[in-house]
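Quick note —
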Amino acid sequence: MEEMISAVMESWQWLMSHIILINLLLSVVIVFFQRRDPKAVWTWLLALYFVPVFGFLFYLLLCQDFHKSKMFRVKEVEDKLRISARSQENYLKRHEMTLEELMERDYKDLVIYNLETSGSVLTLNNSVDIFTDGEEKFADLRREMEKAERFIHIQYYIIKNDELFDSIIPILLKKVKEGVEVRILYDGMGGRFMPKKTWEMLETAGIKVGEFFPATLGRINLRVNYRNHRKIVVIDGKIGYVGGFNIGKEYIGKDPKFGYWRDTHLKLKGDAVISLQVRFALDWNYAYKENLFKSSEYFEVSHWANEERTKVMEGRRQPLGIQIIASGPDMRDRQIRNNYIELFQKARDHIYIQTPYFVPDDAVLSALEVAAKSGVDVRLMIPCKPDHPFVYWATYSYVGDLLGAGARCYTYDNGFLHAKGVMTDGRVSSYGTANMDIRSFELNFEVNAVIYDEDTTERLESAFIMDLEHCHEITMEEYRQRSLVIRVKEQCSRLLSPLL
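Predicted structure written out below.
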């Protein structure tokens, strides 16, 4: 025992005597060998030198670089997506446009950007149902899973071992016995408190379970900073779900800490479901090492979608355009963030934003400030209570910037606001899993649906307007009167914002 203590002390002394050299070498790596935002670079350098040992350990734990990684690329699907995207891009560039001339051409360049950078094909024959209540969303999900005939693919950031998952498990076990394929993918951090025996029971029953970035040292996850934040369900290639709800009792309003849970989830039918299925398959291939692209049955267009495509082509129904876009640390372009900026810059009348965390980078903040100063009605809705204190106070500091530019900001007081989306001019909306913060823009694996449809956007905006009845508006006068304690919290949290 004494020898072990002596060895530990010697190692510690060696580390402390060489910490300056270690920090210097690591600083060189951060500055010269990794392409990072300058603010993030300075924040890490401060951490290294002001918290010498722990700053070094935090960097190793939190700051792996996936930009050059090709871990999610699958050759078979990449080629098909590239051909399909290029074909649609050429189609649009020849001005043979639909979707009411792509909203009078205002959004043509955004569609092409999504096509060129990520192969996000624009689909026109879709329908969208909107859920803002967890009970209603999961009741609908259970009904649709009961109807499954071929497969059920489930992906959530968080899956908890409580009454909500208990209401889903019997349906999955029943469908597996009927011959339906069931796959569940969860994040290593989000699902860390699920008992292993539950997963083992499901796997024994025939359900395939995949874990994204699993913990390697018990419950210690060395890739804690990179989280698969996506929430996707695809049933038979006919029905797709994407949005903010995870699987846990708080998401159906049964956690006293949060009270009512206000979120937004979309139920899609049509060709956009195949785009969601592609996104699920790419993540599944990486986590489970099963190449779903070898079986075309998972990507077949539904009979309903074919019928609706015919109606669109014959002019018997209006097209409903959707692009499924994704972002993550494995991608060079910050796809979702860049879409937000483009939507802000194109807005002429109003911009409505709902997000639990508002920690924008300079480009996003500048786009919103310019819009507000140009007379656009910019409104931001955030929660009234924090679930992550540092992020909340950083959010509150950026609220002050928007107020100074003339925007209107609100706190949602009827429970916890977790909805994540943007609506502009009653014409285009983007909802999904991405928060309006640097973590979602750069570190998390996210997915959003960009919806080019006035009716759907107006329904989302109507829900936003109804939410205002349960909000408190933060005025500039009120913001200026905040206490010294709050000001200190804001400034400290804002300093750490590149790492939050």
